[in-house]
Amino acid sequence: MVVANGCTAFAGTRLIARGAPLQVALAVKAELEREGNENGAAVLVFDDHDARPVEFDLRGTAKDIEARIVAQASRAASAAAPNVIDDQAPDDAPRGRGRPKLGVVAREVTLLPRHWDWLGAQPGGASVVLRRLVDAARHTSEARERVRAAQEAAHRFMTALAGNLPDYEEALRALYAGERSRFEAANAPWPVDVRDYARELAESAFA
After folding, report:
1. CA 157 → CA 1, 10, 172, 192, 207, distances in Å?
2. When comparing pLDDT for 113 and 137, which is higher?
3. Which pick of 61, 90, 143, 174 has the fewest CB atoms within 10 Å?
4. pTM of this prediction exceeds 0.85
5. Cα–chain-centroid distance for residue 108?
6. Rounded CA separation 95/92 (Å)
7. Are 54 and 5 in contact (CB under 8 A)?
8. Where is this region: Disordered (predicted)?
9. Rounded to an integer, what distance in angstroms lies between the CA atom of residue 169 and that of residue 31?
10. CA angle 44, 198, 48 (to 5 degrees)
């Protein structure tokens, strides 16, 4: 998995590294190689954006690891780059008369007569009102999406590291109910690193 965001690594329930992918990968490699990890604590890495698991190829030297991460990021950036077609008229092209387009696109809208009557009675006219309604709907939809994404990220992380901790199910119920105080009360006894990261991921779920 290619990580464009920061990530966080845990050895068991202990946070061992946070930051850019290369920084975290090297910290994970050091943790796995040091004698202090002989108790076999599992090392898990999470994408800070959505808490999806991240796996690094830790073979070779630090330079080898860096080269692989940079190459993966470069390929991902190339794949994600949109193909932009410049279909705009040149700056010296003659301009037609009338108001500038201002990025507005004209398309047909089919409404019932009562809808047109209502739109026509609003200040600014139908086009202005429709744009405002669309912007308001987008804002509401984006807010819901932020809540859903935060719930899924926190749930994903909690399932991985907190599934056997006290009041795990109560914390999940509070998360989806949008009850911050109940969520924090349920995870208060958890190991501090797990608790704090779960709360960070869940922050937007309580907005």
Report:
1. 17, 11, 11, 14, 19
2. 113
3. 90
4. no
5. 35
6. 9
7. no
8. 80-99
9. 31
10. 60
In this structure, how many other beta carbons lie within 10 angstroms of the beta carbon of residue 137? 10
Q: Choose among 197, 200, 204, 175: nearest CA to 16.
A: 197
The single residue listed with the structure tokens 């935060």 is 150
DSSP class per residue in the chain: ---SS-EEEEETTEEEEEESHHHHHHHHHHHHHSGGGTT---EEEEETTT--B------S-HHHHHHHHHHHHHHHHHHHS------SPPTTSPPPSSS--TT---------HHHHHHHHTSTT-HHHHHHHHHHHHHHHHHHHHHHHHHHHHHHHHHHHHTTTSTTHHHHHHHHHHT-HHHHHHHHTTS-HHHHHHHHHHHGGGG-
Q: Closest Cα partner for 153 from 204, 203, 206, 202?
A: 202
* Side-chain half-sphere CA neighbours of 198 within 13 A: 30
CB 11 within 8 A of CB 31: yes
Please count the residues of the chain.
207
